[in-house]
């Protein structure tokens, strides 16, 4: 767990006592002193960040499943239309074949010998023979068409059945995600409220110390050129901007993922909004091989909850927690649960 409050506690001459919020309670017991209040704010902020990212990830999953369901339904409609057309073709060819079968079973003689015996002259015979040939060709085409339409109708029916199953499965998956979405939203909301309540319990001096702590000094003169360098400068330009959960406004309020999204947007690089998707962008880079502009992610494979940007010299810039501002800290200031690093460009 990262501990962004240790510098504030040191300035106040106190020792941080870690008091964890239990999953069964959205709010810890009332603090007995200023130290407890800071510790509770730290834990509540961590829980807010973690649950908030889980909820954001669940929303994205739900939207993806909804899109899958819509696509499957569109495919189903197209396959059902193809099946309907194939059945219409089958009916048309079947009617032609039925008429031919009916004519032959009722005594119609469609042979060339019949044309010869019934013809009144050689010319009449040729005319009848040509007509019988055309009838035979038509009947052959009707039989071939019927055969093709039967195959086509069978394939279209099978395709429609598969599309129906795909649509049903996609709808079921979307519903499954939706059913759990409200619970995750409620958990994230309670965590957010708990973090705010923990912040409200701080003294005025503690709040002032948090807001004024911009971290370590930094120098942008050595930032490399290129998109990564532009992103680093953009992120450092937000030092002092308040942390706001879900915030997207530079200079007013940002959270960890919106800070790096904003920074790379200034370099013309598009990043997703939440850490669970940002961690999939770019390529892996070892922690020891990081260069300015690389992103560090904290958490676990199933719960990536925090992101920071490496700026060089072992330091990062990030939007920490409730009550704080965007600041520069050592890598260790991002948290003890470092997970992985990604290189977005280059």
UniProtKB/TrEMBL annotation:
**Which residue intervals define the domain NlpC/P60 in the entry?**
225-346
Region: Disordered; residue ranges are 149-171
Q: Which UniProt keywords apply?
A: Hydrolase, Protease, Signal, Thiol protease
Per the UniProt entry, the signal peptide is 1-28
Q: Where is the composition biased (Low complexity)?
A: 152-171
Q: Name one GO molecular function term.
A: cysteine-type peptidase activity
Query: What biological processes does GO assign it?
Result: proteolysis
The record, for InterPro entries, names: NLP_P60_dom, Papain-like_cys_pep_sf, Peptidase_C40
Keyword Protease recorded: yes
Keyword Hydrolase set for record: yes
What family is it from? Belongs to the peptidase C40 family.
Which protein is depicted? Cell wall-associated NlpC family hydrolase
Give the species this sequence originates from. Answer: Kutzneria kofuensis
């Amino acid at each position: 767990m990262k501990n962004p409050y240790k510098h504030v506690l040191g300035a106040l001459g106190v020792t941080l006592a870690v008091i964890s919020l239990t999953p069964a309670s959205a709010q810890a017991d009332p603090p007995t002193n200023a130290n407890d209040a800071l510790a509770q704010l730290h834990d509540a902020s961590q829980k807010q960040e973690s649950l908030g990212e889980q909820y954001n990830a669940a929303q994205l999953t739900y939207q993806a499943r909804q899109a899958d369901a819509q696509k499957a339904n569109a495919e189903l409609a197209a396959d059902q239309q193809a099946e309907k057309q194939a059945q219409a073709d089958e009916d048309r060819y079947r009617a032609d074949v039925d008429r031919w079968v009916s004519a032959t079973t009722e005594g119609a003689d469609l042979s060339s010998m019949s044309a010869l015996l019934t013809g009144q002259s050689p010319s009449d015979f040729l005319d009848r023979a040509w007509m019988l040939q055309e009838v035979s060709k038509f009947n052959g085409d009707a039989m071939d068409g019927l055969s093709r339409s039967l195959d086509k109708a069978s394939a279209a029916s099978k395709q429609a059945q598969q599309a129906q199953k795909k649509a049903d499965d996609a709808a079921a998956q979307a519903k499954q995600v939706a059913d759990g979405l409200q619970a995750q939203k409620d958990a994230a909301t309670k965590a957010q409220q708990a973090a705010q309540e923990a912040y409200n319990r701080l003294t005025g001096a503690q709040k002032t110390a948090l807001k004024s702590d911009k971290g370590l000094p930094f120098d942008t003169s050595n930032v490399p050129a290129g998109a990564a360098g532009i992103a680093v400068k953009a992120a450092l330009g937000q030092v002092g901007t308040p942390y706001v959960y879900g915030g997207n406004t530079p200079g007013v309020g940002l959270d960890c993922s919106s800070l790096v999204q904003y920074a790379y947007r200034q370099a013309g690089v598009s990043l997703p909004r939440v850490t669970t998707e940002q961690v999939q962008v770019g390529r892996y880079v070892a922690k020891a091989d990081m260069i300015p502009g690389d992103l560090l992610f904290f958490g676990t494979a199933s719960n990536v909850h925090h992101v920071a940007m490496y700026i060089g010299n072992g330091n990062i810039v990030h939007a920490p927690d409730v009550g704080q501002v965007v600041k520069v800290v050592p890598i260790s200031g991002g948290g003890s649960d470092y997970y992985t690093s990604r290189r977005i460009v280059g």
